[in-house]
């Protein structure tokens, strides 16, 4: 076994993924190459595993890929190679000659007993979506071409203003049309008032100098730069820029604008600009906080080195209980604290009262002190004052450190609770999931008072952030598992009838053929077809036809009662029933029962030459599979019997090799 065999075995589950999956070492050696990539590129795993991917795909040498992948090999957060920026990270063509467009997520992973990080590339085929977007852009460009050709465009826009207003006001962002020549806003939707507090009339009345006064002084220079870019922009090119804008309250709000040339005059000069503005203040604030945190981490390299062990444990597993248990154990050891616990909270609020419940989920405690694991907390443990204490942490999103609880300004009830836990000093940090307060990370000193050092407080705060990520990852992983199960169900189901689809039929039929070949037991197959279904569709319409297919599917499924029997939609109006361990006589009995259920439906089919109601023709075949036979032979026999049933007048059952037919009892 080579050094690459173990990863191949460990990651073979990725061979079931419809997405492409590739794993690279820090030296860009291919560690794993799944079947989807084999199918897409024509390069089999044996040819590429163990080789440098840059030999086959030299573009990996480009700086933009190196800059994105190197942080992954260092254990950094996941990154996405958007299809808009990287058409194909693994270039390959579709059978129709088009290049396959991809969107790739790169994630850092570690092999067992190895310290190095590897890059897990999950490559999603977004070709169809991309081409649909291109078609949409083409349609959009054609629409703009028509608009440019219309005369008196401003009059037409005014006439349709009410309709446009209703649409654009529903948009979640500010949308505007700017007259380049007049330097004036021609149109803006109601979001300007919702987002920034200004009325539509106020904004339309703004002159250029008034607009500049509302832009942050540091960002005014960008206005001229942006106008220069617009003047040189090609038609359809989208230009983006960000700046700070003063709202009605006097606060600076970050706006992200995307603008495109909307109209040119007869001389080819820019007439109107179409733009959108999104309030990204919260995102910018988060970025600023992240920059500040990064700078703090740089200044505290030694502390970060000490906490790296905990972080590695947190990131190693998607089992939330394991992650939390490891975290509290490592934190208690590192801080030499008496108890470290995590309490999950459930905060509810209304206009009258704030209520809270909680439970201590995990704990690491010195054996000298009592355990508080699984302690249930309700609003009776706190009074109104303590609620403000909890909510204060929610607002501040920061640590609370108390060196001596006996002198702390806490309510008697809260002090009594902490005394029952034998706590003399505490440090607590909230754990957030977005804007939701998920719980508290609690550090207790029971044997003595303790002055908490700034580095210790910062450590716990950072670990709380890491735990928040771990909690989110665990929740996302659980949702991913559920989504994968649903995708697997959808992949083998027919969306209209909810029966097994052709793919599932082929898979199940092959499985049963091989099994019954070993066991030398009979395998039967029924192929049935709705008689004159095209005439039904032409007479009643496709909506009614879909309804008919659904009713027939239910009736057929009712005839195949055993768990091992599989009913599948084989084609348009054709169905197949796989009957393992069933003789020909048993299969004919099932077919007869299916016909009875169909007759009971009593679905009118007035133009059918066979009957006034929907009928089925059924072909039955049975065989004991042999090594010398192909599975397709049974399908051919059932198909031949179905053809014979149709040839003899439809609405009947024919079995392969038996001249006797079983017409309807009606």
UniProtKB/TrEMBL annotation:
UniProt-listed GO biological process terms: cell adhesion involved in single-species biofilm formation; negative regulation of bacterial-type flagellum-dependent cell motility
This protein's source sits in the domain of life called: Bacteria
Boundaries of every GGDEF domain copy: 521-658
* A Pfam short name: GAF
Query: Ranges for the PAS domain?
Result: 6-76, 160-237
Residue intervals of the PAC domain: 239-292
GO MF assignments: diguanylate cyclase activity
| Coiled-coil residues | 460-493
Q: Which SMART domains does UniProt cross-reference here?
A: GAF, GGDEF, PAC, PAS
This protein's UniProt keywords: Coiled coil
Record GO cellular component, one term: plasma membrane
Limits of the Phytochrome chromophore attachment site domain = 319-466
Q: What is this protein called?
A: Diguanylate cyclase
- What lineage is this protein's organism placed in? Bacteria, Bacillati, Cyanobacteriota, Cyanophyceae, Desertifilales
